[in-house]
Design a protein that fits this description.
The complex is a heterodimer of chains A (234) and B (316). Chain A is an alpha/beta fold and 234 residues long. Chain A has a single domain, classed as 3-Layer(aba) Sandwich (Rossmann fold). Chain A has 10 helices and 10 strands. In chain A, a hairpin with a 2-residue loop joins β9 and β10. Chain B is an all-alpha fold and 316 residues long. Chain B has a single domain, classed as ABC transporter involved in vitamin B12 uptake, BtuC, CATH 1.10.3470. The chains are: A alpha/beta (234), B mainly alpha (316).
Chain lengths: 234, 316
């Protein structure tokens, strides 16, 4: 069963249409990158999938469940994880409060131990306000916060944005590790090299719709498409 | 009747509006003692008003609602306290039940009045103003316009700075302080409190993490209303119970919220106590209207010098 199936998704911000019929698929265990220039609707696509942006048309289903029938706050419990652009920290909440925010019961000790093994800096700073962490540490916390919810699919919105270059490779490594565990990943990324390195498939967006689908290898071999839709070259 | 008792009567009769005449009748009490007594009186009221203003502040901080009816929630608390005390024969039953009733009233009003206009600040002023009118006129229609007084549940006085100070007032201050501590402990030590703080900061990310934001908003409005009711039941024995009791409280609460920093809960508490003590002290040398003008001038200076509030650096 397809992990995430989006068909002809439409959404507006105010009266302005920002998604004009987005269709994409994420298969179980697959890492899919969604690329495009600023303002083409990448973040809006993720927000519309989660119901944070009201959908005006099309369908979205996750593991066969029509997302129209699920309240947005119940998606995390179904295993749909989200790391928002800018990391979505609650700066005045402690690291521990951020980490366990979505959990209603006692955290699974095995998962917590695994998260601390992966991100030892977080364990050292549990009682510290999250706003005092560096950008890289906040990104680790955002990933860890998502992982403790035992997701089967994680949507990452520009996880390397604003991160020190030396930490980008660490973030990239962690996303790779997430994918190796069999967790599906839908990655919105400005950094083309990161996206092509991590993804199994790539969608290119323009003006609120998907305009191109390719494997990373095929896209690397097609610099004119990259330049046309992303305005950069490899 | 001793002069001390006379002064106490003045304090009891005019909790926020201690008249100049009180000074003239002090006789054996030194001015310093009187000033200290008025400062304590201000502190007592400051702690009670801090509870009410805190309710206003959490509602504003989470829902962006300028709740003009908040003073009337306090008034409903005093009315409910009197009614339940008369019906049950025990003030303590009223003290237990009134905040629970306030919470239920808040939940219902959030659904009927607030939610349809949420995130539209200007519209909420109109709707809560209408609600305020309805609550005041409703209480006047049912209970009449005549101010009523309640017997204090704890009799007796304690000598304090040369006057006999009402024991119940000291209990009220201590209980209000305990409730404030309990509220902050609830905010920082419980999952629900953590969710409220998270939703205040970023409702969208909180939703994506599984926090039921609509329910948290309703609970927060209920809590804010319950705190105004709680302030009402604590204050009922030391103020008058009438349909306009909340009218004087509301601007004081707004000043506390603004001086403390919009949405800054600790700042709101500190500002409420500061303002009440300031007004108490100023009232010892002039009349209450001048004291209120000085409070407003103080708020204006704070807005000019520290537009984000006097305690804007404090943790929210």
């Amino acid at each position: 069963m397809t992990a995430l199936a989006i068909d002809d998704l439409k959404a507006n911000i105010g009266k302005v249409p920002v998604l004009r019929g987005v269709s994409l698929r994420v298969e179980p265990g697959e890492t899919v990158a969604l690329l495009g220039r600023n303002g083409v609707g990448k973040t809006s696509t993720l927000r519309a999938i989660l119901g944070l942006l009201k959908r005006t048309g099309g369908t979205a289903s996750y593991n066969g469940v029509n997302l129209e029938s699920v309240a947005p706050h119940k998606l995390a419990a179904l295993g749909l994880g989200y790391v928002p652009q800018g990391r979505g920290m609650f700066p005045l909440l402690t690291v521990k409060e951020n980490l366990t925010l979505g959990l209603t019961g006692t955290p699974d000790p095995e998962i917590i131990a695994d998260v601390f093994r992966r991100f030892p800096r977080l364990e050292e700073r549990l009682s510290q306000p999250a706003g005092t962490l560096s950008g890289g540490e906040q990104q680790m916390l955002a990933l860890a916060r998502c992982l403790v919810m035992k997701p089967s699919l994680i949507m990452l919105d520009e996880p390397t944005e604003g991160i020190m270059p030396k930490l980008v490779s660490q973030i990239r490594h962690e996303i790779d590790e997430i994918a190796k565990r069999g967790i599906s990943v839908l990655l919105v990324e400005q950094n083309l090299r990161t996206a092509l390195r991590l993804a199994n498939r790539v969608y290119l967006m323009e003006r609120g719709t998907i305009v191109h689908e390719a494997t990373p290898a095929a896209l690397r071999a097609d610099p004119s498409t990259i330049h046309r839709y992303l305005g950069v070259s490899l | 009747m001793s002069i001390r008792v006379e002064l106490y009567r003045h304090l009891a009769a005019k909790p926020l509006l201690i008249v100049r005449g009180a000074l003239r009748s002090v006789g054996g009490v030194s001015v310093i003692e009187l000033v200290l007594a008025l400062a304590v009186n201000g502190l007592v009221w400051g702690l009670i008003i801090a509870l009410i203003a805190l309710g206003l502040s959490i509602i504003f901080g989470l829902l962006d609602i300028i709740n003009v009816a908040h003073g009337d929630f306090f008034m409903l608390g005093t009315v409910a306290a009197l009614t339940l005390t008369v019906a049950s024969g025990s003030y303590w039953i009223a003290l237990l039940l009134v905040p629970i009733i306030g919470f239920a009233v808040g939940i219902v009003l959030e659904r009927l009045v607030i939610r349809p206009t949420i995130r539209q600040a200007s519209l909420t002023i109109v709707t809560t103003f209408g609600l305020s009118m309805m609550l005041q006129e409703g209480v006047r229609a049912i209970y009449g316009a005549q101010p009523r007084r309640m017997e204090a549940p704890i009799e007796g006085t304690l000598p304090l700075f040369g006057i006999d100070y009402d024991v119940y007032r000291l209990f009220a201050a201590a209980f209000a302080a305990l409730c404030l501590i309990a509220f902050f402990a609830f905010l920082t030590r419980t999952k629900l409190g953590t969710w409220i703080r998270a939703v205040r900061h970023d409702p969208e990310t909180a939703t994506a993490l599984g926090v039921p934001v609509a329910r948290i908003c309703a609970i927060t409005f209920g809590l804010g209303t319950a705190m105004a009711f709680l302030g009402g039941v604590i204050a009922a024995p030391i103020t008058t119970v009438e349909f306009r009791t909340g009218v004087d409280i509301l601007p004081f609460c707004f000043m506390a919220v603004i001086i403390g920093g919009l949405g800054n809960l600790q700042g709101t508490v500190a500002a409420a106590v500061l303002l009440a003590v300031l007004e108490g002290l100023v009232t010892s040398v002039t009349d209450p209207t001048i004291a209120r003008i000085i409070s407003l001038a103080f708020m204006s200076v704070v807005l000019l010098v520290r537009p984000n509030g006097l305690f804007s650096g404090a943790t929210r």
